[in-house]
């Protein structure tokens, strides 16, 4: 089984060909192709982690859609002072499909 560990959106993801991965927002329209930098490549028994060899590895992905994550509610409260603060957040996300890992 061939898989790679890639850096995507400040995190590391384990991907193989055909996987659907949700990443932090990446630039690109739906249907466009992006390349993700590989940090580790596992090809059966062979594990590649040297930077010189990983420079030749390309992991390509197709952008499927842009979406937003679930609403996160942030509440702060301090007792006996009248201080209350309420804030919300929704993370910008992109769903991609891994199309190829070329060594």
UniProtKB/TrEMBL annotation:
Biological process, per Gene Ontology: translation
Gene Ontology CC terms, in alphabetical order: cytoplasm; ribonucleoprotein complex; ribosome
Classification via SUPFAM superfamilies: L21p-like
Similarity comment text for this entry: Belongs to the bacterial ribosomal protein bL21 family.
Lineage, broadest ranks: Bacteria, Bacillati, Actinomycetota, Actinomycetes, Micrococcales
InterPro entries: bL21-like (IPR028909), bL21-like_sf (IPR036164), Ribosomal_bL21 (IPR001787), Ribosomal_bL21_CS (IPR018258)
HAMAP family, per the entry: Ribosomal_bL21 (MF_01363)
Quaternary structure note: Part of the 50S ribosomal subunit. Contacts protein L20.
The keyword Membrane belongs to this UniProt entry's keyword annotation: no
Swiss-Prot/TrEMBL keywords: Ribonucleoprotein, Ribosomal protein, RNA-binding, rRNA-binding
Listed GO MF terms: rRNA binding; structural constituent of ribosome
Functional summary from the UniProt entry: This protein binds to 23S rRNA in the presence of protein L20.
Protein name per Swiss-Prot or TrEMBL: Large ribosomal subunit protein bL21
Superkingdom of origin: Bacteria
Isomerase found in the keyword field: no
